[in-house]
Amino acid sequence: MVPPAVNQPTSLPRAAPMAAILSLPVLVAALGYFVDIYDLVLIGMVGKKSLEGLGIAADQLVPTIGHLLGLQMVGMLVGGFAWGMIADRWGRVATLFGSILTYSTATLLNGFVTELWQYEVLRVIAGFGLAGELGVGITLVVESLPPSRRAFGATVVACLGIAGALLAWLVNQWVSWQTAFIIGGLMGYSLLILRWLSHESGMFAAMDASIPKGSLRLLLGDRERLLRYLRCIALGLPTWFIIGVFAFLAPKTAAALGVTGPVTSADAIVGCYTGLIIGDFGAGFLTHGLQSRRRAVGLFLIMAAITCGAVLGLVRGWSPMAYLILCGWIGITVGFWALFVTVAAEQFGTNLRATVATTVPNVARGAFYPMQWAIFAWAGSVGYLSILAALGVVAFGLALWALSKMAETHGTDLTYQEELS
């Protein structure tokens, strides 16, 4: 499909000072994403001991953790649309301020819960707030940096942000689950000052006030635009399939693979996210070296698909340490997460960019919830590894199809708007 003419490469200068990569918009987005990831994975780290502290029976711990993750994802799905439309209508910086204030408050209060229903409510609110961080942050970055530096800016956001998972793991080793949540809330509040110092995106400020902004009708009411949007979602499906299966469901996956000892979700998550840091770092340089978003993402997708297939089909009887090393490698192969969000942001005009960049990663994350349901519903009849293989074929197949239909956006001019048909 031929992309819109306004989205074609321009003669804008390719060179730009490297200092732009560490500008305030990039740091604001990166530190916000750091706190976002800390909170996002914390439930996987402290879920067991927090629920034990609330008196949940041992045989209900895993289902209840899955329930809480599902509620958090529901909040993120709703929040993705809400924050995205707010950012397109009233500004990127104001939205980032509101999102971090929302989830920081919910996370802080999570440290004082005494009943399960309180935990549930706060996870929904926290998920709602978390939904605004990455997409709006990436939007601010791609609209603030020169075309030749956008991929590097997204790389800084991803690498610093994903390190939040490592902090969550360390905090979990040394403090109570209540203190872990309180630390997350206080970190968010500490970023509010930095957010106050931020400036609005020049592209947003210069946008024609008369055109529709952040409109679902504008996004979903045109067939070509809707297909463009669905392709962006499909591109991210393999990332959370792999992270969910090999990290969050690590105890069950490791047992199915015949790993010779117990593996905790916390250790698998930190292994996977360590790999994600390396992968995201490499993805930024690869897309710059290849001068292509599509080729860089394609290489990562192929590498991840081969690894996933080999593990599910061949790996048996590894030690727990070998499984954790495997998680690190798997994290590297799906280290195009920030690049995927950047590609989504670059596919749309300024008046829809934040809505797309915010909803796409949250829908991709949320897609793991029905995947998880399918895994537990059908594992007994067709086998745990067989259902994983089937879901993997679907996820990677859709992603590769979506990539084949996407317009190349490396170095393109983003100063344009989507118009009503």
Keywords:
421 residues; mainly alpha; Growth Hormone, Chain: A; 20 helices; disordered N terminus
Q: How many strand elements?
A: 0
**Largest beta sheet, briefly?**
none
Task: Give the CATH H-level superfamily.
Answer: MFS general substrate transporter like domains
Identify the overall geometry.
globular
How much strand?
A: under 5%
**Can you count the helices?**
20
Q: Any idea of the CATH topology?
A: Growth Hormone, Chain: A
Mean pLDDT across every amino acid position: 87
Compute the separation of the termini in Å: 17 Å
CATH architectural grouping? Up-down Bundle
Structural class: mainly alpha
Q: Rg to the nearest angstrom?
A: 20 Å
Helix percentage range:
over 70%
- Unreliable stretches (pLDDT < 50, length at least 5) are 1-17
Question: What count of structural domains?
Answer: 1
Q: How would you summarize this macromolecular structure in one to three sentences?
A:
By secondary structure, the chain is mostly helical. It has one domain: Up-down Bundle (Growth Hormone, Chain: A). Helices cover 75% and strands 0% of the residues.
Description:
By secondary structure, the chain is mainly alpha-helical. The chain is built from 20 helices and no strands. It is globular, with a radius of gyration of 20 Å. The chain starts with 23 loop residues before the first helix and ends in a 16-residue tail after the last helix.
Topology record:
Elements: H1 24-53, H2 61-90, H3 92-110, H4 116-130, H5 133-144, H6 150-174, H7 177-190, H8 192-196, H9 202-205, H10 216-220, H11 223-235, H12 237-248, H13 250-256, H14 265-290, H15 293-314, H16 320-333, H17 337-346, H18 353-366, H19 368-382, H20 384-405
Helix pairs in contact: 1-2, 1-3, 1-4, 1-5, 1-6, 1-7, 1-14, 2-3, 2-4, 2-18, 3-4, 3-5, 3-7, 5-6, 5-17, 5-18, 6-14, 6-17, 11-17, 11-18, 11-20, 12-13, 12-14, 12-20, 14-15, 14-16, 15-20, 17-18, 19-20
